[in-house]
Amino acid sequence: MRRVAHIFLGLMAAMLLAGARPAAGQSAAGLACQSSVDGIINPAIADYLTRSVREAEERNCEVLIIRLNTPGGLTTSTWQIGTALLNAKVPTVVYVTPQGANAGSAGVFITYAAHLAAMAPNTNIGAAHPVAGGGEDIGDDLRDKITNDAVARITTWARAHDRNVEWAEEAVRKSVSVGSDEALRLNIINIIAVDERDLLRQLDGRAVALADGQERVLATLNSPIEPIEMSWLESILHLLGDPTIATLLISLGTLGIYFEVANPGLGVGGIIGIIAIGLGLYGLSVLPVNIVGLALLLLGFILFAIDIFATNHGALTIGGIASFVIGALLLIDNDAAPGVAVSKGVIIGIALSMGAIVALVMSFIVRTRGQRDVLGNDGLVGSLVTVRSTIAPRGTVWTQGALWQARADERLETGDEAEVIAVDGLTLIVRHPRVEGAMNPPAVGDGGL
Predict the structure, then answer these.
(1) What is residue 288's predicted lDDT score, i.e. its pLDDT?
(2) What is the mean pLDDT of residues 61-67?
(3) What is the DSSP code (8-state) at residue 22?
(4) For 55-82, what is the mean pLDDT?
(5) CA pair distance 191, 193, nearest whole angstrom
(6) Smallest Cα–Cα separation from 368: which of 445, 265, 257, 253?
(7) What is the pLDDT of residue 333?
(8) What DSSP assignment string belongs to 206-274?
(9) Quick one: pLDDT band at residue 138, thresholds 50, 70, 90?
(10) Longest dimension (CA), the chain
C-alpha cells in the first residue's frame, strides 16, 4: 500500500510540473508595465518616469513600456530620465505612439536611453539641435559647448544599445528628423508596431543586456499590461509646468486683480487673481525662464494697469501689448529646454483680450468722469452712496455708476449706506445718514463694473 501511495504521489508531482511548464513554442509571460508621456518633458515627468522604473522593478515586471509623444523639454529633466533608464534593472522600451506622434528634441534622447525603441506607423523622431530663446542659433562658443555635451551623451547611449550612432549625432548637430519606416531602416529603432499587443508580440524572445551585466530574454507574448499612472500631484505639476498654461494663469490672475481694483470690497477677483498668479509663477519656476522675456511680460501688465488711470489713454496699452507679445515669445530659454515655448496662438489671443478689456475699462472710466462733471458737486452733497470698501478713515463708495474715493470721521463697513456731506476734489466726505429722507441725485445712468 505504501508503494502504491508513493507511485501515486510521484505521478501527481509529474502532472503538476508538466502543467507548470509552458507548451512548445510559447513563453511564460510576465507582467508588462506601462507609463505614458504626452507633452513637454519637465520635472514632473522626470519624477514620474523615475518612479515608474522603480515600481516596475519592485513589481518584477517583464518589461516597462513608455508611451511617448513630446515636442521636447528641459535638458535637466531629460538627463534625469536618461539616467533612470540606463540604470534600470528591468528592460525598458520607448514606444512613440499614437500615429502622428513625435519624439522631438528631448524625445530623441529618451528614446536612445531605453534598452529597445519602437514607433507606431506614421510617427517621427528627430530635431534635437539646441536653439536660443527666440528660436535663433546661439553664440558659437556656447553653442559648441552645449552641442558637444549633448552629442557625447546621445552617442554613448547609442553605442550602449547598439543603435545608429551617426544619425544620433546628426539629430543633435543638424536637427535631422525621420519617419518610422526610415527610423527602422537606419537602426534608430528596433520595431514598428501598430499597438501594444503587436509590440509585445515582437518583443517576445528578444535579449536585453541590463546595466548590471545580466542578459534578460523577454517573454512577453501573452503579457498582461498594467499601467503605472501619474499621481494627482504629478499631473497638476506637469500641467503647471507647461509655459502656455503658466502664462494663461498669470494673465487671468492679472485680470482678476484688475477686477478687484475696479470693484473693491468684493474680494473674489483679488483672491482668484492672487491664486492664479501664484500657480503661474510656480509653473515658471520649474522652467528655464529668460529674465528679459519675463521682465517684458510683467512690463506689459504694468503698462495696461497704468493706462487705466492715465489722463491720455491708448498709447500705454499699445506699448503694453507689444511688450507682452515680445516677452511671451522670449519667455522660455530654449538653450535649456529645446522645443518648449508659449503657444503663439495663445500669445496673440491673450494680448488682444487684455487690450480689449483695458479699452472697455478705460471707456467706462471716461464716461463716468464725464458724468461726474455733469452731476457737479452740489448734486452730490446730501446724496446717499453705497460703501464698496471699508472706510477707516479712507475707502471707496459707489454712486450713479461711478466709483469714488471717500473718507469719513467714523468707520463705515462694506455695504453700508453713507451720506455725502462734502466734496474735496475727487474725494467724497461721507458719514452715516443723519437726516431721514436724504436725497439721491438725479439719475445719470446707474451702472456697475
Answers:
(1) 81
(2) 98
(3) P
(4) 95
(5) 6
(6) 445
(7) 76
(8) -EEE-TTS-EEE---TTPPEEE-PPPHHHHHHHHHTSHHHHHHHHHHHHHHHHHHHHSTT--HHHHHHH
(9) low
(10) 123
- Cα 351 to Cα 322: distance, rounded to the nearest angstrom: 8
Q: Write out the three cell numbers for 302.
A: 504694468
272-325 per-position pLDDT tens digit: 888 999 999 888 888 888 889 889 988 988 887 776 666 556 678 788 888 988
Amino acid letter, 411: R
pTM greater than 0.85 (yes/no): no
Decide: residue 282, CB within 10 A, 0-12 exposed, 13-18 middle, 19+ buried. middle
pLDDT at residue number 14: 43
Query: Which string of DSSP letters, residue by residue, matches 335-401?
Result: TTSTT----HHHHHHHHHHHHHHHHHHHHHHHHHHHHHHHHHHHHHTT-EEEEEE-BSSEEEEEETT
Gap between the Cα atoms of 406 and 393, Å rounded:
8
Strand locations in 108-214, DSSP E? Answer: 116-119, 124-126, 177-179, 191-192, 207-209
| Residue 384 and residue 438 in contact, taking contact as beta carbons nearer than 8 Å | yes
Q: What angle do CA 283, 288, 289 make, to 5 degrees?
A: 80
CA distance 121 to 96: 9
Cα 19 versus chain centre, distance: 51
Q: Above 60 in pLDDT, residue 247? A: yes
Find how far residue 392's CA is from the centre of its chain.
Answer: 43
Q: Please report the sign of the dihedral spanned by the C-alpha atoms of residue 129, residue 133, residue 137, residue 142.
A: negative
DSSP tag of 175: -
Residue 216: Cβ within 10 Å count: 16
Degrees to nearest 5, angle at CA 245 with 239 and 251: 145
Looking at the chain, the whole-number percentage of residues with pLDDT higher than 70 is 78
Of the listed ranges 258-262, 273-277, 318-322, 414-418, the least confidently predicted one is 258-262
Q: How far apart are alpha carbons 425 and 356 in whole angstroms? A: 30
Query: What does the pLDDT look like over 358-372, one tens digit per residue?
Result: 777 666 666 655 555
CA distances from 418 to 136, 390, 402, 425 (A): 61, 11, 15, 18
If you write DSSP's letter for every residue of 83-120 in order, what string do you get? Answer: HHHHT-SS-EEEEE-STT-EEETHHHHHHHHSSEEEE-
DSSP β-bridge partners for residue 102: 124
The single-letter code of the amino acid at 127 is A
277: Cα separation from own chain's centroid: 14
What is the pLDDT, as a whole number, of residue 264? 57
Tell me the domains of the chain and their CATH numbers.
Answer: 28-231 (3.90.226.10), 241-365 (no CATH), 381-449 (2.40.50.140)
